[in-house]
Amino acid sequence: MRIAVSKKLSLVLPLILAVVVSACGAPATPVAAPAATEVSAAAATEAPAATEAPAATEAPASSEAMTSTEATTATETTTSTEAAASGEAAAAMPSCTPRPLTVTLNGTGSSFVNPIMQSWIEAYKTVNPGVTINYQSTGSGQGKSDFLGGVTDFGGTDALFTDEEHGKEADALFIPDVVGAVVATYNLEGVDNLQFSPESLAGIFLGTVTKWNDPIIAADNPGVTLPDQDITVVHRSDGSGTTFIFTDYLSKVSADWKDKVGSGTAVEWPVGIAGEKSDGVAAAVQQTPGAIGYVELIYALSNNMPTPAVKNAAGKYVVPSLDSASAAANGFLADLPENLEFTITNPPSGDDAYPISGLSWLMVHAKYDKADTAQALADFICWAYTQGDQAAKDLNYSPLPDVVKNQAYKNLSGVIAGGNPVFQ
């Protein structure tokens, strides 16, 4: 993977590591990530198939799309580049020792990240049994509202704050947890290998492309027989970070979309029917012939729904995957902002980058009155960073690049817990 770290960030990374290693204490014995079989069970629980809907067949990569072999080759050829760019920071990721606390942490928010959050929480019980973590998948919009309203100790979101939300808590921290992909999945009988260009997706969701055999879709899919069938758009009914990622992408690739609709956790959709949360959208697509909607990759895979390739800025049709989502994130690391508030949709370069990729964050307060609350939350995040990557991969999320983790450690170390630094 290609990572170009700025000179400024390279200079501060050693300081970041010094802070974290000092804060976390001596390296602990590594805790094994949850077994793949356990993660698979969790995935099935969080994204159940809609029993009333006919199961769709997962879309294979088209001849023009990057194959998994090509993606693997691309990853292998850039591994050395990534290591060199990360420098000493990548080679010295610390292991944190969770403090033996007795506390309950409450959080709400992103459904995008819910499967991996539940997996991490379940595994963490065996690491630090005195810490109880409750996370409810309410959608990013509600998660932000609960966090800013003081209802929860932390929040999950796939969407950045609006200017109004920043005004309510300007010093809130956005701590990334994983990278994931959003897919434009569909239900079209007898057609399971479609791919989409930015023009076709924008036209479909604007309502200007209304038939599956429209010339714009046909141009993306030479040799595919498309039916003269109406398209039914399915979108989220709740405030959603998945919606933010998808509309952020559409706003970058379509001037019409940006002018008429824009981006956000909730927008005024020109057309379509609504489903609540990711599983609601997945069920609505499965139950509606001719439907198309957007869900996280894990929900599409868990329900055996198509995961079509999308044409990126380099002109390549790329299938959503761990590697292609990571490649999208890598396209933005050269100018990594210190506050880690950035989006990774439609990267300007990278043949192997999937263009509808996004970060998910945990929202953390800069100050906590209760020291044990802040300490327990910081320890959990530190543990997830050092021990949670395999569980993320097992659930089809891409782990964060090391350079992002190190900046997050630096930011997290500035949290004040009961008047003292959180890792003191």
Structural notes for this entry:
With 424 residues, the chain is α/β, with parallel strands linked by helices. It folds into two domains: 7-41 and 84-176 and 352-421, Periplasmic binding protein-like II (D-Maltodextrin-Binding Protein, domain 2, 3-Layer(aba) Sandwich), CATH 3.40.190; 49-66 and 181-335, D-Maltodextrin-Binding Protein, domain 2, CATH 3.40.190. Helices cover 41% and strands 16% of the residues. The protein is built from 17 helices and 15 strands. An eight-stranded mixed sheet has the order 3-2-4-12-5-9-7-8. Strands 1-11-10-6 form a four-stranded mixed sheet. The model is unreliable at 1-93 (pLDDT under 50).
State the shape.
elongated
In percent terms, what proportion of residues is strand? 15-25%
Structural class: alpha/beta
Tally of helical segments: 17
What is the CATH class of the largest domain?
Alpha Beta
What is the CATH architecture annotation of the largest domain? 3-Layer(aba) Sandwich
Radius of gyration: 21 Å
According to CATH, the fold-level topology of the largest domain is: D-Maltodextrin-Binding Protein, domain 2
Q: Tell me the distance between the termini.
A: 35 Å
Helical content class: 40-55%
Uncertain regions: pLDDT < 50 for 5+ in a row? 1-93
Q: How many strand elements?
A: 15
Q: Name the CATH homologous superfamily of the largest domain.
A: Periplasmic binding protein-like II
Question: How is the biggest beta sheet arranged?
Answer: 8 strands, mixed
Would you tell me the overall average pLDDT? 83
> What's the number of domains?
2
The strands making up the biggest β-sheet line up spatially as: 3-2-4-12-5-9-7-8
